[in-house]
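dumping these here so i dont lose them again. two proteins, back to back, each one seq then structure tokens. dont judge the mess
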Amino acid sequence: MGMCLQASLAGRFYIRLIAKTTPICYQLHYQDADMRHLQYYWITTGNPMLTLIQQFRNIARNRSMIFALALRELGSKYAGTLGGFLWAFAQPLATIVIFYFVFVIGFRAQGPGTTPYILWFVCGLVPWFYFAETLPAMTSTITSNGHLVKKTVFPTEILPLVHLAAGLVPHVIFLLILTGMMAFFKIPFFLDRIFVIYYLICSCAFLVGLGWMLSAFQVFYRDISQGLTIVINMWFWITPIVWSQDIMPAQYQGLMFYNPVYYIVEGYRGMLIYNTVVWPSVGATAYFWGITALVFFVGNYVFRRLKPEFADVM
């Protein structure tokens, strides 16, 4: 026989406790201020795999909230500025121009084979900017939304995903710009090129694990976001984005295999800018997903373990 206990919270939230078996599941129902939308999710203790499945259910059921918060994030980020959303492209475009003059005009850098350097560089920069702009935002999302964490019963695990979704908008626009450059340089189009979406999924999976883990640690150690800026700068230069790995000594080129971002960057290039589509090797794919799965599960575990302490620490 099961037991059901329901408690009302301020007329807007209520929790239903179901104690049929172990683990105990808490079903939380949330209705927003205008009383139109009903969201609910489960918090489960006990079996880790069952908890992870319930967390995916929480995310799926709160997808409308994620998209609404992502739109609000995009709107508020540039609210009150004259340039508005155009500022989202100012830094990337300035970076492209600077590196073009330094490496193409100054050092006369060449892309691999017959591929124009500027096209090769921009194609690597597109996934990098999505990664480098989204990860710091995900890291600070819990501390910057303390009003949600402290004052309401809120599914905080969706907060990093808000920035993941918000970052997709400028990323897609940059992909369209890259498509225009491909047309300008007469890169042939193949239907297989649409599988670049696979590498976008790779980016999202890797970012979610890192985002959960770093955002949880950031609540307790505010130095995380400061140190992350240094790590991202170093990560940019050790990833072949502005330089080709061919210039490395042969005995060190294999080290790129262990860089998960290199797999994504080269995947974008292999799918989009070469005359033939270049598919990843089985070994590189297996390694990437092994690392991503480890980061994902560790990040999820860390977030769930530290989540009950968020409100007290903040």
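---- next one ----
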Amino acid sequence: MAIVPCRVIVCRATSSGALHVLPTALLAQRAYGGAMSQPTWAQRERQELCRLLEEVGPDAPTLCGEWTTRDLAAHLIVREARPDAAIGIFAKPLAGWTEKIQAKAAQRPWAEMVHEIRTGPPTFSLFNLPKADALANTTEYYVHLEDVRRAEPEWTPRNLPPKLSDNLWKVLRSRAKMFYRHVPVGVVLTRTDGAEGAESNLQVASGAPVVTISGPAQELLLFSFGRKEQSVVDIAGDDSSIAQVMAAKMAV
């Protein structure tokens, strides 16, 4: 099944029976229970992921190892609603507790799970603090949306708005050296879709020989998050060094 970019359009019936189209911005406003002029990139990616989850169902594959879409949805719910359990995502000694809570969350009805993700972080969640959702969730929901899209047998890269691409590149620039700290050779990322005159080269690992990875910001981000085989990038370097980059574990 080919998955192509699409706008979320929701209709409701008026009292006369006519259909009234709810624009994306209003949908996000209602989902988050607040007033806003425009949804953030994190909110847009969240809504698009929920649309796709409804389309493919709870048993579709993802790029997250053996996780199905149900497992991925449970991860997103626990991450935002259960800070006591979410810490196990990063702290291995607590991973068992996280897995237990996540398995319980995955037993809920599918429609209920998607609804909880769509309506945003719970009121008490740290992600509901001012700007926290935009800062912490833009890459989270972009990457997991692509985890579902690119697990399908046919897919094409999305044509992202330039401002979203710039946002992803900004995040990558701030975190890339951490991602590549286990890579034993030098690595330079080269962005190919930036504005003319903007900084496009980023050294993320020192050493020699050097491998250069080139592509749009979204593809470089996915590669850096470990989705190497599903990233549309060009890799230049000697065969041995490229093999070491491809085999290295990314420290996300």
